[in-house]
Specification:
alpha/beta, six-stranded mixed sheet
Amino acid sequence: MSDLKIIQIHSGFVSPVLIANGENSILVDTGRKGFGNEILKAIISKGLKPANIKLIILTHTHFDHAGNARFLKEKTGAKIIVHKNEAKCLEKGYTIIPRGTIPFSKRMSWLGRNLFPFIGKYPSVKPDIIVENELDLADWGIDGKILHTPGHTKGSQSVLIGNSLLAGDAFFNRGLKGVFPPFADEPELLIKTWEKIFKLNINKIYPGHGAAFKIDRAIETYDDIKSKYLQN
């Protein structure tokens, strides 16, 4: 466990995360379709073989996170883990574009849902392991667990490793004032998920888009926007 490293792979506006742990390594998210070889090269550059990736954990099944799931499963032999609420989406190779949380993303969401629904498509693949609420990673030599963290989507999940959270699109760190995602199907639920996350005693968050940041930034964002979503 002392040799474990958490490494972001910035690929096509998305940030999959490699949990480098020798022969029991894990990839969290797979990026957009067409970036699979780039992700493989990044894994190899860290001194790992493709076969060292034992698990591919999907934080959710949007096209920019599950786009290379089938490709990377074939190249690594890894088992794919997804939350039960999105297992059927993965098998179909389609997840609807999420709703926007700010004016610009609301317009983009409307376009994606109504005029360009094909954007949500990606190569389908059958998951190997389905999570309901939590999954301990001890069987794969990792002192950590998968947690259900809904709000961005119903099946969103995060990976807790020590005092770090690999959070997918529960957080967003690309060009906005705070770290609340510009897309979320249920923003009110996501705010409540954040409240639960703040109780996990973590100090670092790895978002699905952008660089990792300290928990203080998330708390600051929460204080700025909570009144917008927590009316009651």
